[in-house]
Specification:
- By secondary structure, the protein is α/β, with parallel strands linked by helices.
- The chain has a single domain, classed as Rossmann fold (3-Layer(aba) Sandwich).
- It has ten helices and seven strands.
- Strand 4, helix 5 and strand 5 form a beta-alpha-beta unit.
- Helix 5 packs parallel to helix 7.
């Protein structure tokens, strides 16, 4: 899988975050040119990659701004010599989203969560679809959540936004398939990033792990490998699907 990705060019939105930055670094280690787009300054991630002899472009941009997204894609095309092979949409709020009953969700927070997760993915995919359609190939991955599979209580804004990405992947797969472009989603369980571990009580983290079929914490590399599979030629005939990377947490009971 990794050998087949060598020489590819991809955009990672939200690439300055914990999972996005790890994805960018691992991809770069395997010879992939990565463009890291984030509202947060991505230069530390780019420096880390360049120090390891990788090739990366950092673009600080508001992924909710259509003009900024279009400029970002233009910058990537110029940097790569006109090539974009894949897009991975990590951009979105999570750690700062309050967990409250849906009737207590502030409308401004609802808009912020939906826009940061759904609008950003729509705008980025719309922008890259033009060069991908012209090239006749491409791979797109929306990073959803396993909360979309079971409907997490007190988290309606986040769950709704992540569920929208599943539907978006399916519809886009149908529209872009004739152009040789595959669109899929990944639904992570609770990933034990440093920020998540710091913000959650150990009792809750243990409860989540014990609710999985595989009683081990989900780590960043688990998500990296999943998205790598979906953007690689190994997943040539996989499209419109959602790959749950959650240790079997949504297997259900019997």
């Amino acid at each position: 899988m990794w050998a087949e990705l060598q020489g590819a060019v991809g955009i990672i939105t939200g690439g300055a975050g914990a999972i996005g930055s790890e994805t960018a670094a691992v991809f770069a280690e395997h010879g992939v040119t990565v463009a890291i787009a984030d509202i947060v300054d991505p230069s530390p991630v780019v420096a880390r990659i360049n120090a390891a002899d990788g090739r990366a472009l950092g673009v600080q941009a508001d992924m909710n701004d259509p003009d900024a997204v279009d400029r970002m894609v233009a910058d990537v095309l110029e940097f790569s010599g006109g090539r974009i092979d894949f897009l991975i949409n990590f951009a979105g709020l999570f750690n700062d989203v309050p967990r409250v009953p849906f009737w207590e969700i502030d409308l401004a927070m609802w808009d912020s969560v939906v826009e940061s997760n759904v609008r950003t993915a729509f705008l980025a995919t719309r922008a890259v679809s033009a060069p991908m359609r012209a090239a006749g190939h491409g791979r797109i991955v929306h990073v959803s959540s396993n909360t979309a599979a079971f409907g997490m209580g007190n988290f309606l804004h986040y769950t709704s936004a992540k569920a929208a990405l599943v539907g978006m992947a399916r519809s886009m797969a149908r529209e872009l398939g004739p152009f040789g472009i595959a669109v899929n989603a990944v639904g992570p369980g609770l990933v034990h990033t440093p920020a998540v571990v710091a913000a959650q009580e150990q009792k809750y983290l243990d409860q989540v792990v014990n609710g999985q079929c595989l009683h081990q914490p989900i780590v960043q590399r688990d998500i990296v490998d999943a998205v790598a599979f979906l953007v690689s030629p190994a997943a040539r005939m996989v499209t419109g699907q959602t790959l749950l990377v959650n240790g079997g947490a949504t297997m259900g009971s019997f």
